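>> received
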Amino acid sequence: MKTLRINRPTLLVALLVAVTLHFGLTLPECNAGEPRYGVTILRDVMVTMRDGIRLSTDIYLPTENEAIVPEKLPAILRRTPY
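>> returned
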């Protein structure tokens, strides 16, 4: 009768797959609820870069009751190649 030998890399991969499946299938769903702010989008705002080139930019601003929120909030910036 042959004995089953499992080498270390195979065992590690199997363990990683098992842990990933376990936690991936058992995590609770995120329920964020209603958003705190609305959004206003200013499209095609021309922003001048340091080298003088002007880039068209969309600016997303948080709003509350149709007014732009005056307080400072964190921002996410994303630039795509032009």
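>> The CA atoms of residues 18 and 24 lie 10 Å apart.
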